[in-house]
Specification:
There is one protein chain. By secondary structure, the protein is mostly helical. It is about 85% helix and about 0% strand. The longest helix has about 40 residues. The N and C termini lie far apart (about 40 Å).
């Protein structure tokens, strides 16, 4: 259990640092940093369950986007405040570095393999963000329509 929480807490602390850099203040600092905790926890859980790295990035981004949408609604803040900090732990920095290293050293195979891996990870993150944000907004519009019988501009 502690080996699961340690990287999640490290992600939370790193996101606090980014929150300070991005000048996030007040209660949003904690909740935005907690989005990084949530995304990394979802990444680790899905990696343990499925064992597929790309799926782990997808589920981590999905969890971050859902948490960001819900937090933004209740805290009356923009979604991007939470979402950007939620995906920071998922950014494939090492894969980008290896891609550029392969390009600069002339190792074409490493450049192509790592470049494709980086694109797959980026695509999985983008798909997770897109699907979860879209589903959240559709469900919210449906609930508002059922509850009040009217539509609201939620964009």
């Amino acid at each position: 259990m502690i080996e699961f929480l340690r990287p999640c807490l490290a992600s939370f602390v790193a996101c606090i640092g980014f929150s300070i850099v991005y000048q996030i203040r007040g209660k949003n600092l904690f909740f935005a940093s907690f989005c990084g905790f949530i995304s990394w926890a979802a990444f680790l859980l899905s990696d343990a369950v499925f064992g597929v790295e790309i799926a782990s990035y997808f589920f981590g981004a999905t969890a971050a986007a859902l948490y960001a949408e819900i937090s933004a609604h209740f805290l009356k803040s923009p979604v991007t405040v939470f979402l950007i900090l939620g995906i920071i732990p998922l950014v494939p920095g090492l894969a980008v570095y290896r891609t550029m290293e392969g390009c600069l050293t002339g190792d074409t195979q490493q450049c192509l393999v790592m470049g494709i891996e980086t694109l797959k990870i980026g695509g999985a993150i983008a798909l997770g963000l897109f699907l979860s944000s879209t589903l959240y907004r559709l469900l919210r519009a449906a609930v508002l329509h059922i509850r009040y019988g009217k539509t609201e501009n939620i964009g």
